Amino acid sequence: MKVLVVDDEPKIVEIVTAYLQKAGYMVESTDSGTQALAMAQSHDVDLVVLDLMLPDMNGLEVAQLLRETRHVPIIMLTARSSEADVIKGLRTGADDYIIKPFSPRILVARVESVLRRQVPNHADEICTDDGKIKVNLMTREVRCHGETIELTKTEFDLLEVMIRHPKQIFSREQLIQTTRGIDYEGMDRMIDSHIKNLRKKLEVDPKSPHYIKTATGSGYFFTEVSA
């Protein structure tokens, strides 16, 4: 699949391109909003990563014009971090909104998530090695020990990013970026609270978890139970 990166910071373009290519995507880039519109129309672009502050036109205007002609998924990647900016970006038609500075790995995960919603794959299921937890990424159904577990949107989003990348440690800040549904203030403690609730629902003994582990001083990661 092809991703168009629209940003006037060469270092950002270089980093995003490298991580997306490593994940298997074809990548094109431009620093011009006008050129981005032309490329999105004439090229077989599957998703656009769009900065809001471009030299020739506002990224919001690019998104609006793009929405008028085709429904290509858009992820806004910008330093504009106010609540008003986020709301405006999403209401303009963005499928996701990521604030700079950002984690390239989280960006790739969000690209995967947005594209997965565009192209349904009902076989897209992740299962732990012991078979006790099954997560269907399309239906957002979670089964634990044979029973369906009800998760909130935020709980599922946290579980999804960790189970897709087992044994990778995610800082609280990285987990914040994966979950758009949490308020921005008081985030660190909120993440801890959501992790605590996840453990109550998935772990046999939440105080001694087997799946969702704490990396002291670093964050959290997902691992499987030993056979």
From TrEMBL:
<dbReference type="InterPro" id="IPR011006">
    <property type="entry name" value="CheY-like_superfamily"/>
</dbReference>
<keyword id="KW-0805">Transcription regulation</keyword>
<dbReference type="GO" id="GO:0010468">
    <property type="term" value="P:regulation of gene expression"/>
</dbReference>
<keyword id="KW-0046">Antibiotic resistance</keyword>
<dbReference type="InterPro" id="IPR001867">
    <property type="entry name" value="OmpR/PhoB-type_DNA-bd"/>
</dbReference>
<dbReference type="GO" id="GO:0071555">
    <property type="term" value="P:cell wall organization"/>
</dbReference>
<dbReference type="Pfam" id="PF00486">
    <property type="entry name" value="Trans_reg_C"/>
</dbReference>
<dbReference type="InterPro" id="IPR036388">
    <property type="entry name" value="WH-like_DNA-bd_sf"/>
</dbReference>
<dbReference type="GO" id="GO:0046677">
    <property type="term" value="P:response to antibiotic"/>
</dbReference>
<keyword id="KW-0238">DNA-binding</keyword>
<protein>
    <submittedName>
        <fullName>Response regulator transcription factor</fullName>
    </submittedName>
</protein>
<feature type="domain" description="OmpR/PhoB-type">
    <location>
        <begin position="123"/>
        <end position="224"/>
    </location>
</feature>
<dbReference type="GO" id="GO:0003677">
    <property type="term" value="F:DNA binding"/>
</dbReference>
<keyword id="KW-0963">Cytoplasm</keyword>
<keyword id="KW-0804">Transcription</keyword>
<dbReference type="InterPro" id="IPR039420">
    <property type="entry name" value="WalR-like"/>
</dbReference>
<dbReference type="GO" id="GO:0005737">
    <property type="term" value="C:cytoplasm"/>
</dbReference>
<dbReference type="GO" id="GO:0000160">
    <property type="term" value="P:phosphorelay signal transduction system"/>
</dbReference>
<dbReference type="Pfam" id="PF00072">
    <property type="entry name" value="Response_reg"/>
</dbReference>
<dbReference type="InterPro" id="IPR001789">
    <property type="entry name" value="Sig_transdc_resp-reg_receiver"/>
</dbReference>
<keyword id="KW-0597">Phosphoprotein</keyword>
<feature type="DNA-binding region" description="OmpR/PhoB-type">
    <location>
        <begin position="123"/>
        <end position="224"/>
    </location>
</feature>
<keyword id="KW-0961">Cell wall biogenesis/degradation</keyword>
<keyword id="KW-0902">Two-component regulatory system</keyword>
<feature type="modified residue" description="4-aspartylphosphate">
    <location>
        <position position="51"/>
    </location>
</feature>
<keyword id="KW-0678">Repressor</keyword>
<feature type="domain" description="Response regulatory">
    <location>
        <begin position="2"/>
        <end position="115"/>
    </location>
</feature>
